[in-house]
Design brief:
single chain, alpha/beta, 5-stranded parallel sheet, 4-stranded mixed sheet, 8 helices, 9 strands, about 40% helix, binds guanosine-5'-monophosphate
């Protein structure tokens, strides 16, 4: 048997944490908090054909591209998944995802339900979280309070929300965002539970039996 000091803790496979929510459910705020607490999360920067909003930075929030470029990339198999959301195209570039997962990094995806369903078929090992608003009435109130959408857009988003929530039965975790702190605690619990899944570190039991010593550096919290 090798010396315990020669062995290291077997690496864990990265968690693909996919978070879906209707617009107005609070997803952006919760994702920001999660990335602050776990800065080593790889983040998938999507391509989109919608125009940038004020404050949004090309290459950080999204890669903002034309419809023509999007269609050419889609035809070339550039995207791991793609979907039309609120009349615009969105897609996850395949290569950065493959590279980060190959390094064993945890990754965060902020995509819609159609895209999440495609990812689940094409990439194994995701943890899928769906975030609900407490009620349709509260969702409508939040969308109006944002003041960024006109009445037609709010109506479209509410219809989309209803559709997404009806399709959310296959997710691994459901979180209701009534109280932001509580929703955040539940989201980080869902992530941490996924990191503990034995399927992400199948050789752990054997290596403990054969003797490795725990060492620092397996926790990526700030
Ligand atoms: P927004 O335009 O408000 O940033 O995003 C609108 C919706 O598109 C959100 O639900 C967001 O999660 C989703 N979305 C963003 N990027 C992608 C992507 O790459 N693929 C898919 N399927 N949906 C995305």
């Amino acid at each position: 048997m090798p010396e315990a000091s020669q062995l290291s803790c077997p690496p864990r496979a990265g968690v693909m944490l996919v978070i879906c929510a209707p617009s107005g459910a609070g997803k952006t705020t919760l994702i920001r908090r999660l990335r602050e607490e776990f800065p080593c999360f790889g983040y998938s920067v999507s391509c989109t054909t919608r125009a940038p909003r004020p404050q949004e930075v090309d290459g950080e929030d999204y890669h903002f591209i034309s419809e023509e470029t999007f269609c050419a990339r889609r035809a070339a198999g550039f995207f791991a998944e793609c979907a039309t959301v609120h009349g615009h195209f969105y897609g996850t570039p395949r290569e950065p995802v493959r590279a980060m997962l190959a390094q064993g990094r945890d990754m965060l995806f902020d995509i819609d339900v159609q895209g999440a369903a495609q990812l689940r078929l094409s990439l194994v090992g995701g943890a899928y979280v769906f975030l609900f608003p407490p009620s349709m009435r509260e969702l409508e109130r939040r969308l109006r309070a944002r003041g960024t959408e006109d009445a037609a857009s709010i109506r479209r988003r509410l219809e989309g929300a209803e559709r997404e929530m009806r399709e959310a039965h296959w997710f691994d975790a459901w979180i209701v965002n009534e109280d932001l702190d509580r929703a955040y605690d539940e989201l980080r619990a869902a992530f941490l539970a996924a990191t503990l899944d034995p399927r992400r570190r199948p050789s752990l039991a054997t290596s403990i039996v054969e003797g490795w010593e725990p060492h620092a550096g397996t926790d990526c919290r700030s």
